[in-house]
Design goal:
3 domains, Rossmann fold, about 375 residues, about 20% strand, alpha/beta, 13 strands, 10 helices
Length: about 375
């Protein structure tokens, strides 16, 4: 058997690496296509032809077969669909994509400044209490206590001799992520909804896998607001909607009110000014020009209500128009929250750095 060797370069890839790269590209395209596998594959085929992504080692048909073998897609009535495993893979790829762009930051282990029932040991010790983990017993301090009392010759061990290491208290958190699905998220030919969905996908994967005790609610808002499941995220579409920010905040606040934890927060990803709300009779009052004083004031009232319930709002604006910035600053002041003005390329970085920082430094047990 003969082998042909070539010079290795930084661009050299194994077949497994090429496959992984193509699957990640498929994941991104299927999110952009709102879960339409056929459309995503068509886009992938066009990109591959334009940039020469396939060769004799891997063809488009080979990739589709691999996607089937990996359980990412399946055919129902001869139409390719995402499987449940495929949806999870999309979340994983979104998480990987965002975290590879993160700068050095707190590692997000959810620690708080308080001691308590946690995992990571501290240097300090204290007397043993019923229920403490035996693995946290400090043998050196424990034996020293016994020796000081009875000496080496009459050694005996009593409960009062036992000392355990303090551990960092790890708390849980309830988060609602609000995603704007109003028409402006695709206005002027700029795709703003795909990065927003990637953030939601990645955040949901982060919480469900690394922080399973945390709560994550996903709320989309346009003319109205509704709660959506994790599995619906890839299929979200922008509609011919106005921006009912007030309804989104109301739903988010109601969801968080039902959570037992004292640590609650709202993340809102939006590019638009509030342009709609429901009046006292349940009718949709709208003003397409936006920043209608009636709508703005009611939205700010909701921000104040969140503040009174100790729910900070972090707003991620993907637009930089001066009048939009003025509104967000008003909302932030009313809520005592935060605001970030981010580009589409680093939206995920801002969300994850802020989420992890909040969980480590802000949310301590009360």
């Amino acid at each position: 058997m003969r082998f042909r060797y070539g010079q290795w370069t930084n661009d050299s890839q194994t077949d497994e690496q090429r496959l992984e790269q193509m699957v990640q590209l498929f994941s991104y395209l299927v999110v952009q296509a709102s879960g339409d596998v056929d459309e995503a594959l068509d886009w992938l085929r066009q990109i591959a032809e334009e940039y020469g992504l396939f060769d004799e080692g891997m063809t488009m048909d080979d990739l589709i077969d691999k996607l089937r073998e990996m359980g990412i897609i399946e055919e129902i009535d001869e139409v390719p669909r995402l499987t449940t495993k495929g949806i999870q893979r999309i979340r994983q790829d979104a998480l990987k994509e965002i975290f590879t762009s993160l700068k050095k930051a707190p590692d997000g282990a959810h620690e708080t400044p308080n001691t308590g029932t946690g995992v990571d040991r501290l240097s300090e010790t204290r007397k043993f209490n019923f229920g403490d983990q035996p693995t946290n017993i400090d043998l050196t301090s424990t034996l020293s206590n016994a020796f000081r009392r009875d000496g080496i010759d009459d050694f005996s061990l009593r409960e009062e001799d036992l000392e355990v290491y303090e551990t960092e208290h790890q708390t849980n958190c309830a988060t609602v992520l609000m995603v704007d699905i109003s028409h402006s998220m695709i206005l002027y030919g700029e795709d703003r909804i795909t990065p927003a969905k990637q953030v939601a996908l990645a955040l949901s994967e982060l919480i469900t896998t690394r922080y399973p005790k945390d709560y994550l609610g996903l709320v989309v808002f346009g003319d109205d607001a509704q709660l959506v499941s994790i599995n619906e995220l890839p299929f979200l579409n922008v509609g011919p909607y106005h921006t009912n920010t007030r309804a989104g905040l109301q739903l988010a606040r109601n969801l968080l009110r039902k959570r037992g934890t004292s640590n609650k927060q709202i993340f809102m990803v939006t590019d638009g000014k509030p342009s709609a709300m429901f009046d006292g009779n349940g009718r949709l009052y709208k003003n397409s020009f936006g920043l209608d004083p009636k709508i703005v004031n009611k939205t700010l009232d909701e921000a104040v209500a969140c503040r009174r319930e100790h729910i900070p709002i972090t707003t991620f604006m993907v637009a930089r128009d001066p009048y939009l910035i003025n509104f967000v600053e008003e909302l932030t002041r009313a809520n005592n929250g935060r605001a970030y003005y981010s580009s589409l390329s680093n939206l995920g970085e801002f969300v994850f750095v802020d989420y992890i920082r909040n969980r480590k430094k802000k949310f301590s047990s009360r």
